[in-house]
Amino acid sequence: MNDRPDSLADAPLGRESAYPEQYDAGLLYPIERAINRAPLGIEEDALPFVGEDEWHAFELSWLNARGKPIVAVARFRLPASSPRLIESKSWKLYLNGFNQSRFASTERVVRVLEHDLSEAAGAPVGVEVFGVDDPVLTPRALPGESIDEQDIEIADYTPSAEHLTVGEVIVEETLHSHLLKSNCPVTGQPDWGSVMIRYRGPKLDREGLLRYLVGYRQHQDFHEHCVEHIFTDLMARARPERLLVLARYVRRGGLDISPWRATPGEWPPSPLRLARQ
């Protein structure tokens, strides 16, 4: 019996797959964002946030015109306003198809990636390709203050916005936690991550915030939707003037995903990568 959501009925995720040896744009498997946004009350024509899904591909390789392998790291930026996200295993299979395919130049590879990913997502996708020793890939630390050292007892591992409470003092601060964990909605595999929250508004109770974030530990959802869930809960419970939620998930299968969602006018720090990514 197939108990997958309809949007994943034919996806390669959770299935045995043959790894391609030649380029094939048809391997990309788009998923409508509206399916998971509807339960959060998010309407596609009136998004309550701006944002992007930033991906890094650490296993990108192709052959040059003479058959010599080239290896690189790619950064992709998929707009949160795109009608579709792209399922991660299909993305991995698609990139593997480059391994034995010849391209005349790196610029040509970038153009092909931009075209195919934009077609799948339904919106322009930004692509950058770096050499494996490029200093831009050097790991950095998340900005702000960690809330992980609180000595609290936790027994609830499902996300509950009831944990989110605020005081009367208006503050502007950046907080982060490395205790984020959710699970793949199809395979149940763990997805480890870190989350940063920057806001201006009534001061968040840090104990409650940590309980809330740890609540995702047994939650099954895509990375992108976890971030949107956190954003909408914080907006509803804390009502900040400004808010940015950014998650940086540990790579799996050579890909990491780092979604961010924010109130208009807010932007994340310059591209950063954590040591465990």
Automatic annotation (TrEMBL):
One of its GO terms (biological process) is tRNA queuosine(34) biosynthetic process. Its EC number is 1.7.1.13. It comes from the Bacteria. It catalyses: 7-aminomethyl-7-carbaguanine + 2 NADP(+) = 7-cyano-7-carbaguanine + 2 NADPH + 3 H(+). The active site is at C184, D191. The keyword Thylakoid does not apply. Substrate binds at I86, E87, S88, H223, E224. GO terms for cellular component: cytoplasm. InterPro entries: GTP-CH-I_C/QueF (IPR043133), NADPH_dep_7-cyano-7-deazaG_red (IPR050084), QueF (IPR029500), QueF_N (IPR029139), QueF_type2 (IPR016428). Its main location: cytoplasm. One of its GO terms (molecular function) is preQ1 synthase activity. Belongs to the GTP cyclohydrolase I family. QueF type 2 subfamily. Catalyzes the NADPH-dependent reduction of 7-cyano-7-deazaguanine (preQ0) to 7-aminomethyl-7-deazaguanine (preQ1). This is NADPH-dependent 7-cyano-7-deazaguanine reductase. It comes from Halomonas caseinilytica. The lineage of its organism: Bacteria, Pseudomonadati, Pseudomonadota, Gammaproteobacteria, Oceanospirillales.
